[in-house]
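Researcher: Good morning. I'm working through a list of sequences from a screen, and I'd like to move beyond sequence-only analysis. For each chain I'm collecting a predicted structure so we can compare shapes side by side. This is the next one on the list. No need for commentary yet; just the structure.
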Amino acid sequence: MSKDSLIDHVICAAAQAWAGDGEVLATGIGVVPRLAASLCMASINPDLLMTDSEAWLVSEPVPVGPRGDYVPKRETWMGFARIFDVVWGGKRHAMVGPTQIDRFGQANISMVGADYRKPKAQMLGVRGGPGTSFNQAKSCVVGHHSPKAFVSGEVDMVSSVGYNPARLARGWSLDDVDIRLIVTNLAVMDFGGPGRQVRLVSVHPGVSVQQVQEATGFPLHIPSDVPVTAAPTDAQLALLARLDPHNIRASALPA
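Model: Good morning. Structure tokens for this chain:
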């Protein structure tokens, strides 16, 4: 599969994360998550709410990149304070791109390395990950599926919680954690396996189940029948061309 075709498969698969959400605020952090949320709002779940990535709710997704003559169709102001009101009320579903994920779904966007004082690589910090872990649904996109991303032990820094009883805050249970889909350049996964084990949902065209397991640092729950990820439809491709007129998504996956 070509790189351009692969990224369209990834975006269309990721768009399904919000399919049954109804009226919630979709936040896609990064080009692929944002396009996935936009595609979902435009074709799958019209009740989805989105901002213009600035401070307004919009009635249609705003294209990524330079806007030219396009004017966002703004409906109402959606400042930071209102965003947090929505988050604390459990009415947001965010899609993020963590550097590491472990078998619990714990994500790391902060640093890589065993020593916090001298990390091998420094990223964003935990940001809002700890607090929003309990108050909203979350899905993930990982551009390069490998054991470095899907680590064998715990992530180096738990930036957001997952289905790990040892990391839960006092008074919370595993039922308060809501991690939906993980979409990568190889496959689609969720936490539908026994005991919330990561389950292989589908593999992208040309990818084998064995390849996905070998690229994952922990055992996956593999059903007896793993389908191939559905190809984008002509209508979806037309929407992506409108939502990404500058083809920014072409550089979203590693070379």
